[in-house]
C-alpha cells in the first residue's frame, strides 16, 4: 500500500515544485513590469516608492530563498493577471491626462498596488510555510512507512529463510517416507510369495491327508472283515462248547470226543495263532506305513502324534492278545496233561476246560473291545482330518 502511494506523492511534490517555480517567475515579471511602468520623475520624488522598492527587493530575495515546493498557482495567476493588466491601464491614463494629475494618480495607484502585492506575498509565504510543514509531515510519514516496510521486508526475508529450511526438512522427510514405502512394498512382495508357498504346502498336506484317509478306510474294512471272522469263530466255539458239555456226560465216549475236541481245539488254536500272526504282520505293516506317513506329514505333528499314541495302544493290545494266546497255549498243554488224568477227574477236567473256554471268550471279548477302540480312534481321526480339510 505504501509502495502504491509513493509514486503519487512524488508526482504531487513535483507539481508543487513546478508551481512554486512558475509563481516565483511570475512574481519577478510583475515587479519588473511595475518598475518599468513607474515614471522616472516619480521614482526620484516619491519616497514612498523607494520605501516600497526597498520592501520589494528583500521580499523578492526572501522568495528566492524558499525551497522546492509551491501551491496556490491558480490564485496567483489571477492576482498576477490583474497586476499585469494594471500596467497598460496606467500607461493609457498617464498618456491621456495632464502631467500633474497623472503623476498624482500614478503615485497613489502604485502605493495601493504595492500594498496589495505585499499582502499577497505574505499570504503566499504563510501558505508556503504550511505546505512545507505538510510536506515535512508527509516525508516523516513516508520515512516511517519506509522503516516499517524495511522491517516487514526483513521479517519476510526471515520467514522466507525459515520456509526454505522447513521445505528442505520436509523434502528429507519425504525422501525417508519414500524409502519406507519401498521397504514396505518389498515386505508385501515377500509376504505374497510366502503365502503362495504356504498355499502350495497346504494343498500338498490336504492331498496327503486324503491319501491317509483312503488307506485308513481300507485298513478299517480289513479290520471289520477280521472281526466278522472272529465273531463267526466265536459262534463256532460256543457251539463246540455246548457240544463238549453234552459229551462230558459220558466218560468213555467223552474221552474219545475230548480227544477229537482237543484236536479241534488245537486246530482252532493253530488257526488263531495263524490269524494272530497275520494280525501281527498287519500291525507291523501298519506301523511301517504309519512311520512312512509320519515322515511325509511332519506338518501335522500334533494330530499325527495322537494317532501314534493310539497306534501304540493298539500295539499294546496286540501284545496283550499275544500274552493271552500264550496263556491259551499253556492251558492247552495243561489240558494235555489233564487228559491223562481224565479217567479219575473228569468233572475237574471238564471244569478246567470250561475255564479255558471262558478265557477264549474273554480273549475274543478283548479282541472285540480292542477293535471297537481302534475303530473309534480311526473314526475320531477321520473326523479331525475332515475338520482340518474344511
Automatic annotation (TrEMBL):
Domain of life from the UniProt record: Eukaryota
Coiled coil: 134-289, 318-352
PROSITE patterns xrefs: NAB (PS51774)
Ranges of residues in domain NAB: 1-34
GO cellular component terms, A-Z: vacuolar membrane
Cleaved signal peptide residues: none
Keyword Coiled coil among UniProt keywords: yes
Region described as Disordered: spans on this chain: 38-117
Keywords: Coiled coil
A single MF term (Gene Ontology): actin binding
Biased composition (Polar residues): 56-67
Biased composition (Low complexity): 97-108
Alphabetical list of Pfam families matching this protein: KIP1
Stated family: Belongs to the NET family.
Protein name per UniProt: NAB domain-containing protein
